[in-house]
Design brief:
With 212 residues, the chain is of the alpha/beta class. It contains 9 helices and 5 strands, in the order H-H-H-H-E-H-E-H-E-H-E-H-E-H. It folds into 2 domains: 80 residues, Orthogonal Bundle (Methyltransferase, Methionine Synthase (B12-binding Domains), Chain A, domain 1), CATH 1.10.1240.10; 119 residues, Cobalamin-binding domain (Rossmann fold, 3-Layer(aba) Sandwich), CATH 3.40.50.280. 56% of the residues lie in helices and 15% in strands. Helix 3 runs antiparallel to helix 4. The chain is globular and about 55 Å long. CO-5-methoxybenzimidazolylcobamide binds next to helix 3, helix 4, helix 5, strand 3 and strand 4.
Length: 212
Amino acid sequence: MAVDLGKMSDLLIAGKVEDVSNMVQEAIDDGMDSSEILQGGLIAGMDVVGQRFKACEMYIPEVLRSAKAMSAGMIKLRPLLIESGAKTAGTFVIGTVKGDLHDIGKNLVAMMFEGAGFNVVNLGIDLDTQVFVDAVKEHKPELLGMSALLTTTMPRMGEVINALKEAGIRDQVKIMVGGAPVTDEYAKEIGADIYGANAASSVDKGREALGD
Ligand code: B1M
């Protein structure tokens, strides 16, 4: 019998880390498509968590459990999501800006880029502006990605772009920004090259910007 993705979402919402991990493995073993598991099971569950968090029906410790369950599922999916990547399409440096601890979406974007054959340098979360500047100098990436999930941390992305200009290296790299509150208009306003709405379309947009 096919794995029930609705049940997987429910387990994720309930923060059942082990169960989600096992169920993702079961779905993989059953031959279910990895993006179907991601969208129909994990992301669908996380969407509900977001709605309940907003409505104060779930609180931070519970949301953290769900986030942990999501990450456990993503670890299982990771090899499948990156499987298609054979050649190096370029280097992609990505991180979450200062003051922001959200990393699920950023890690998903990183995985998708790995899957598309990029050499990905994932810098982590809560990063000082200088960390991005130093990473561009060190890794010389074709693409720099910044993620922000809070309206209060979005301005940090513009600060990084200004710091890259001041360091004289802004034009050496294409810049992509994304995260739930970020919009195409905002990306333009702060001088980013690309707005990434979600993990899958970000890869297409990144490739397009690099002329692939
Ligand atoms: Co946070 N949180 N949170 N939270 N949290 C949100 C973002 C919020 C919208 C919830 C809500 O109110 N509905 C709200 C922000 C409101 C706002 O500013 N507009 C919020 C808040 C307020 C907070 C705190 C301030 C709560 C508090 O303490 N009172 C606090 C802040 C902590 C901090 O960062 N300093 C906080 C804390 C947390 C947890 C730690 C508990 C946990 C994070 C755990 C973790 O990441 N390891 C958490 C979570 C899980 C969420 C929600 C529920 C889910 C986020 C998520 O992982 N989504 C979120 C509600 C929501 O977004 N619906 C919420 C799944 C993920 C796959 O999607 O991250 O959007 P997403 O990524 C997508 C796209 O956005 C895009 O592609 C991804 C894949 O498709 N994308 C990019 C993301 N980055 C990209 C970069 C790109 C391109 C595309 O290019 C570089």
